[in-house]
Amino acid sequence: MKRYETDVLVIGGGGAATAATIAAHQGGARTMLAVKGQFGVPGVRGAGATSNPKADFWTIRTVGPKGGLFNPPDATWADMVQAGLGTADAALCRIFVDEVSEAIKRLRSMGMQFQSKMLATMPASPDTKGTNNIVQIQKAVIAGTDTQVVERANLTDLVVIDGRCHGAVGIHDDGEPLVIDAGAVVLATGGVGQLFRYSFNPPGNTGDGYAMALRAGAELFNMEFMQQGLATTWPTQAMIMLYEMPEPYRMFNRHGKAFVGEYLPAGLSLAEVSNLKAYHWPVSCRDGAIHLDRAIHGEVLAGRATEHDAVLLDLSGTKRGFQPEVFVEYMHSIGIDLERDLLQIQLHHHTSNGGVRIDEHAQSRIVGLLACGETCGWQGADRLGGTMLGGSQVFGWRAGSRAAEIAKDRPGPQARAEQLDALLLQPLARMRGVGGRTRPAALLPALQQTMWRELLVEKDATKLARARAFVQQQREQLAQDLCVGEPFDLALAFEHRNLLDVAEVIIGAAEFRTESRGSHVRADYPVRDDAQWLTNVFVTRDGDALRLRKQWVNASWSPQDGDIRIRPWG
To answer: Where are the beta strands (DSSP E) in 164-204?
Structure first.
C-alpha cells in the first residue's frame, strides 16, 4: 500500500477544490490535492463540473454595494432565502452575500477577465471552448506553490478515529492501494451527475463525497432537491435557456404533433406557461412552468420522443431576451443554426442542491472533515443562477482556511493496519474474488437510464419504488456477478458503489417528503404542505440502514415572505 502524508488533503478537481487548495496553502499548511484522472483538463475525468463547457455563457452572481441599485446585499440574500422556500440555510446564504465580491476580486487578481465590472459573466467562445477558465487559472496558481498534486487517485473512504478525520484511502488507476494521512480533509468532489442518463457533469462525478461522508458518520440534507433544466441531446449537449422569449415556442414530438396542451391543467394556456418559463431555466413547481417540463419528459416516457430521447423545438420565429446574439453565436459554433434547425431537447440533471451539512467554517460534524462546492448543501428547494460557481469559491476558501487551522494540532498518523484492512483491502479482495461476468462499466448505462426516468422532473410512489428495486438489483449484481477484467475496473466498481449509495439517499429523501416544493415534484402529492414539511430532511447512516429525520434550519422564514425579486432567477 502506497502511503502519503500531508497536513491538509483536498479531494476533487473543480473550482471548489482549487480554491480550497490555494487557501490551505496560504494558511501555512502542507497541502495535497488528490484528483481523479488528469487535473485541470476541461470535460474529462477529474475536471469537475466547474469547467465543463455546456452553455453559451456562465456567471457568478454578483452583489452590489449596500443600498445600491444592482443586487444590493439584503435583497440578494432575501432572494436566495426565498428561492429555497424555507429550506435554505439563511446563515450560509448571508456568508455568500457578504463574501462573494471578495471571491470575485481574488479571481480577477489571479487573471480572470469578466465581461464587465458589474457582471461576473463570461460568454462562451471558441478560444475557451466554453469553459470559464477558473480551474485553469487556479491550477496555474497552485503550480507556483509546493502543493503536491496526486493524479489518478480514486479515494474510496475516509479514515475516522474517535470522531476525527485522519485522512482517506483509495486506489490508483492501476489498482494499487493508497492511504493519505492528513490532519484535515476537504471534500470538493462535486455532485452525482453521472447517476443520470443526461447530465452536465463530466465523467467521474459519481457522488463520492456524499457517499464517503455518509459512511464516515457525517450528515447529508436537502438531497431530494436537484436542479434540472433543458438542453439538447443531439448532436451535442448545450443548455437551452428560454429567457424572456416573447411568444410561445413551437414544440412537437417525433410525429410532428404539438403536445404541451395535453399536459396543461384547465385554465392555464400555452402562452401563460411560456411566459412563466421565461423567468427560470430550472425545473420548479413554484409556478405553472412545471407543466412544460412535465410535458417534455412525459413524451419520452410515453414513447413519442425522437431516437435521441428528445422532443423538437423550433426557435426560428423568436429570440432570447437575454444576450440573444451570444446564444445564436454559441449554437452556431456547435453546429446548430437556430433559423433553420429544429433543436432536439430534453431535461438534464444539472446540480444537487443538497449535500454534506456544514457550519459557517465549511466544517461537517466530524472534526477535521470539511466540504465545499456541490459536495455541501445549503441552498434548498431552488437556487439562484450563479450561486453555485460563486459558492464554490466562497466556501472553498473558507474550507481551505479552516482546514489549515485544524491541521495545526493534528496528532501523528493514526490509521491502524486493521482499520485500513477493513476500509480498503477487504473490499478489494472481495471485488477481485467474485469472478462474475459483468464489468462495472456495463452496469452504468442501465442505472443512468433508470434514475433519469424515475427520479427527474416528476416522481411518485410507484416510480420511487421501481428506482429502489433497481438499486437493490444492482447491489446484488455488484456483489455476486462482478468481473474485474483490468485494474481500472476496481476504481469503477467503487464508483458504482457510491452511485448506488447516493441513489438510495435521494430515493429515501424523496419518499420521505410527501409534498411538492421547488425542484422536488411529487405527482401523488402535488401541493406544497408548509404545515407538515416546512423543514429540512436529514439523512445519516446506521450500519447498512439509512436514518431520515426532520430538522428545520431556517426557522425565521415565513411563507408570506414574497417571491424572488430578480427575474430570470435561475
So the answer is: 164-172, 177-187
Element (H, E) at 348: strand 343-352
Per-residue pLDDT of 325-346, as tens digits, reads 889 988 998 899 999 999 999 9
CATH number at residue 379: 3.50.50.60
With beta carbons less than 8 A apart as the criterion, state whether 498 and 184 touch. no
Same domain membership, residue 49 and residue 170:
yes
Asked if residue 141 and residue 6 are part of one domain, the reply reads: yes
Q: Which of 67-71, 72-76, 250-254 has the lowest mean pLDDT?
A: 67-71
Does one domain contain both 319 and 389? no
Tell me the average pLDDT of the chain: 92
pLDDT tens for 357-376 read 999 999 999 999 999 999 99
**pLDDT cut 90: percent of the chain above it:** 76
Q: What CATH number did the domain enclosing 324 receive? A: 3.90.700
pLDDT value of position 131: 65
Long-range contacts of residues 260-263, Cβ cutoff 8 Å, at least 24 apart:
260/291, 260/292, 260/295, 262/295, 263/291, 263/292, 263/294, 263/295, 263/298
CA distances from 470 to 449, 451, 454, 473, 510 (A): 11, 9, 10, 5, 16
Between CA 499 and CA 494 the distance in angstroms is 9
Residue among 62, 364, 367, 511 nearest 378 (CA): 364
Amino acid at 349: H
Copy the grid coordinates of residue 30.
502542507
**Cβ neighbour number for residue 360 with a 10 Å cutoff:** 13
- Which grid cell sits at 108? 480577477
Predicted structure pTM score: 0.96
Tell whether omega for the bond before 568 is within 30 degrees of 0, i.e. cis: yes
Give 560's contacts (C-beta < 8 A, 6+ positions apart).
none
Angle of helix 270-277 versus helix 290-301 axis, rounded to 10: 110
